[in-house]
């Protein structure tokens, strides 16, 4: 149990970077960008093929980010310069990327088992610190019996993801970031304040898909392979993370919302892991579970608010009745 | 300051829907001119504003600001010279962003946007000072989302955002039309004060004839895409609503078909 939950949190933190990317397009730019299904794989493919060709993992990962930026920019160009509607721009790019990803990989699946990866490179340095033993000793006291192989992935990924979150928070408060948010909020207004909304949309989608691809490259290194089909349904998983996170942790301001999105990504992985432990459910049911989760996360907050409002009104009515009775 | 020459614009040319929205427009504004624009529905007032701001391109003719040809500049480039307030209070602000963030975006209008904080401590102080001049208490709500403001408050904020960088041209298109009478009066008074303070070159479209007479040093009347009447200085001061209506009838040989205008 602990081990599978540990795995869920681990991958949750990696997928959280993808969810932050989806947050940027879906929420900040108000652009439902389906490129994600393709750009996630592009990141994995570029990362994997670079590593198998001897590029150091860290550089391979950055190349993946760059490739993702490119895919998002092209979607942005299709939308702003080609005047193609947002959904269609994303779908076209997603389909095109399927073929491109297959070209990059050269085969449907590329294994990284025998290659060095970012995480494998960190392990020897990590082991020397002895932190694993310390943590395992500590949680052993709390009654955990089976320990994870290593804590390096989780801790390293938390650092990376939080760094990306902080950078995103800062960026969205800069002059450029404000204009980017306004492009999603009131495009006509920010254009009348001399901002080039085309460029902002292109750059915004670039950054968004850059993060998605970065996440893809990390997932490939974490899982030990890149597969041309690994991106199917990724946009829905990203949306699920954003929506669950917002519903559970709130959206008071930007810093809070990005934190919520990360939380949402982790919660999503935990729920899926727990659901798959139910005997009746199979791996193939995961997409259905995801869809149901999103539906619940979308509807539940509304029902809760409505019933709160109802109770408030009920209380008021009772108070009024009491008053009239007294009179 | 602003010079329009020979502007013409026809929508849906050569179709049954053809509409000559602007014809043969010549208009020159001096620095500090405050021109009110009246005319019946569909006269082409908004189209004229859009041609100046660059959201519409004229079929022929030129637009120059400070002697610089701008007719080929896209809207977003031109808007570093032009402040605008729209009729719809929702149009001029970003609702999900805070008051100070909205002001910061307007503050960056005539500067290059960079990767530095949009709202610095120094700027926040500056914004607070500007907001105080509105006397709506908005200076105490810097971090409130603009979506929570009333229409009048939003319009006052839009007006401030359009003007506090002292643009070369200020365009107001029925910017009080969506407000209740007392709010409309407040915004009208603010407009007069702000235009005076910064000595802004202003074009203001209004359906309220009294407003058109009270404000500004020049008045133009439009009809069927043309400027049919243009008065300034003392002549404008002596103008009354009756005289204006009479003037329209004399020029067009019919009554001004806009009851909104008369009631306003
Ligand atoms: N995008 C467009 N396509 C086709 N026709 C248009 C378009 N915009 C405006 N028109 C037409 O051009 C004419 C001038 O419109 P405009 O909006 O400039 O009028 P206006 O003077 O601002 O009127 P109002 O007082 O009602 O705001 C109208 O007949 C209008 O129907
Ligand atoms: Mg109009």
Automatic annotation (TrEMBL), chain A:
Domain of life: Bacteria
Subcellular location: Cell membrane
Subcellular location, principal: membrane
CDD domains linked: TM_PBP1_branched-chain-AA_like
Keyword Magnesium listed: no
Transmembrane segments: 12-29, 58-80, 87-106, 151-172, 199-222, 228-250, 257-276, 288-307
GO molecular function terms listed in the Swiss-Prot or TrEMBL record: transmembrane transporter activity
Topology in the lipid bilayer: Multi-pass membrane protein
GO cellular component: plasma membrane
Keywords, alphabetical: Cell membrane, Membrane, Transmembrane, Transmembrane helix
Membrane among keywords: yes
Entry protein name: ABC transporter permease
Species in which this protein is naturally found: Terrihalobacillus insolitus
UniProtKB/TrEMBL annotation, chain B:
Chain ranges of the ABC transporter domain: 2-249
Pfam family, one: ABC_tran
Gene Ontology molecular function, alphabetical: ATP binding; ATP hydrolysis activity
Membrane topology reported for the UniProt record: Peripheral membrane protein
Keywords, ordered alphabetically: ATP-binding, Cell membrane, Membrane, Nucleotide-binding, Transport
GO cellular component assignments: plasma membrane
InterPro entries, per database record: AAA+_ATPase (IPR003593), ABC_transporter-like_ATP-bd (IPR003439), ABC_transporter-like_CS (IPR017871), ABC_transporter_ATP-bind (IPR050166), P-loop_NTPase (IPR027417)
Protein's cellular compartments: Cell membrane
Protein name (record): ABC transporter ATP-binding protein
Species whose genome carries this gene: Terrihalobacillus insolitus
């Amino acid at each position: 149990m602990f081990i599978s939950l540990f795995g869920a949190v681990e991958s949750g933190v990696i997928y959280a970077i993808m969810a932050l990317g989806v947050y940027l397009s879906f929420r900040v730019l108000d652009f439902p960008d389906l490129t994600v299904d393709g750009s996630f794989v592009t990141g994995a493919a570029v990362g994997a093929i670079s590593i198998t060709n001897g590029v150091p993992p860290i550089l391979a990962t950055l190349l993946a980010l760059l490739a993702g930026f490119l895919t998002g920019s092209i979607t942005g160009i299709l939308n702003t310069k080609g005047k193609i509607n947002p959904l269609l721009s994303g779908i076209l790019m997603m389909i095109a990327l399927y073929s491109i990803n297959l070209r990059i990989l050269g085969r449907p699946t590329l294994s990284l088992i025998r290659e060095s990866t970012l995480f494998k490179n960190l392990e020897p340095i990590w082991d020397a610190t002895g932190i694993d033993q310390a943590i395992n000793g500590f949680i052993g006291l709390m009654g955990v019996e089976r320990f994870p192989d290593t804590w390096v992935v989780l801790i390293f990924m938390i650092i990376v993801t939080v760094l990306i979150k902080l950078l995103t928070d800062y960026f969205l408060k800069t002059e450029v970031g404000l204009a980017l948010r306004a492009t999603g909020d009131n495009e006509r207004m920010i254009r009348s304040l001399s901002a080039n909304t085309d460029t902002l949309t292109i750059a915004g989608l670039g950054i968004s898909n850059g993060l998605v691809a970065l996440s893809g490259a990390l997932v490939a290194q974490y899982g030990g392979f890149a597969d041309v089909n690994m991106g199917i349904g990724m946009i829905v998983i990203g949306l699920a993370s954003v929506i669950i996170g917002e519903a559970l942790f709130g959206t008071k301001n930007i810093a809070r919302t990005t934190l919520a999105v990360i939380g949402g990504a982790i919660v999503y992985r935990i729920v899926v892991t727990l659901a798959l432990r139910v005997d009746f459910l199979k791996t193939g049911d995961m997409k259905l579970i995801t869809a149901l989760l999103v539906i619940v996360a979308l509807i539940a907050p509304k029902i809760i608010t409505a019933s709160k409002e109802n109770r408030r009104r009920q209380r008021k009515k009772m108070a009024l009745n009491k008053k009239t009775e007294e009179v | 300051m602003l010079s329009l020459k020979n502007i013409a614009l026809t929508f849906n040319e050569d179709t049954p829907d053809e509409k000559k929205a602007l014809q043969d427009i010549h208009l020159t504004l001096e620095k500090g001119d405050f021109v009110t624009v009246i005319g019946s529905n569909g006269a082409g007032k908004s189209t004229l504003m859009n041609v100046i701001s660059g959201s519409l391109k004229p079929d022929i003719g030129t637009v120059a600001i400070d002697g610089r040809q701008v007719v080929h500049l896209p809207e977003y480039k031109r808007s570093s010279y032009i402040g605008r307030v729209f009729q719809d209070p929702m149009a001029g602000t970003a609702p999900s962003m805070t008051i100070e963030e909205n002001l910061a975006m307007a503050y960056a209008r005539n500067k290059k946007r960079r990767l530095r904080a949009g709202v610095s401590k120094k700027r926040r102080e500056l914004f607070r000072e500007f907001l105080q001049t509105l006397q709506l208490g908005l200076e105490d709500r810097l971090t409130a989302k603009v979506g929570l403001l009333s229409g009048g408050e939003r319009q006052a904020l839009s007006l401030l955002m359009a003007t506090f960088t002292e643009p070369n041209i200020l365009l107001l298109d029925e910017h009080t039309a969506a407000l209740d009478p007392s709010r409309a009066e407040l915004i009208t008074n603010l407009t007069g004060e702000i235009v005076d303070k910064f000595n802004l070159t202003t074009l203001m479209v209004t359906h309220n004839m009294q407003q058109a007479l009270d404000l500004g040093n020049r008045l133009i009347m439009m009809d069927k895409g043309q400027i049919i009447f243009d008065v300034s200085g003392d002549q404008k001061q002596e103008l009354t609503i009756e005289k204006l209506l009479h003037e329209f009838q004399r020029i067009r040989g019919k009554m001004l078909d806009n009851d909104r205008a008369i009631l306003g």
